[in-house]
Amino acid sequence: xxxxxxxxxxxxxxxxxxxxxxxxxxxxxxxxxxxxxxxxxxxxxxxxxxxxxxxxxxxxxxxxxxxxxxxxxxxxxxxxxxxxxxxxxxxxxxxxxxxxxxxxxxxxxxxxxxxxxxxxxxxxxxxxxxxxxxxxxxxxxxxxxxxxxxxxxxxxxxxxxxxxxxxxxxxxxxxxxxxxxxxxxxxxxxxxxxxxxxxxxxxxxxxxxxxxxxxxxxxxxxxxx
Length: 225
Prior knowledge:
alpha+beta
């Protein structure tokens, strides 16, 4: 018969796993991007329209310039093209040899023929290590201008959520953009964004196989050999 302590431990584990499964879908992954992820355009004080006036300073755009983002609340599309590769290798080796020879011709005045001794020792070691890392992140996200810096650069931030069958994927981005790098269509490549924070996370449910494995490890740990 199973002991009361074993039953209590099993019940606690089951309850903990059920709570974890129920809360898995409600957890929003932590972020490394700079908040907030969006911003509204700054409010413009309304002034009575003058009769015959056709110029509005709040909505002014140069005549020969496209509508590039320049104000808080404007949007810009980020083409994420990130590829990183890192390789590191190191090694060391060494060896040491030693030998000692000695002979005794006589002992207490008596000759000792062929009384020789020798000893030798050698040691060597070799150590090698290597590490390789490769990452690729490609996609696009439209971000919002959250702040205009004093030099005219734009701080942007954005988030995109994609709901799938068993969870939600989060794509987040933040960084500082030079308006001169914005191309036609208000698009900028991620490699030209300063202080870029790019992340892809998910809050999908716990896999059933993983839960079964957790149960198996628990009962095996409680079983007596």
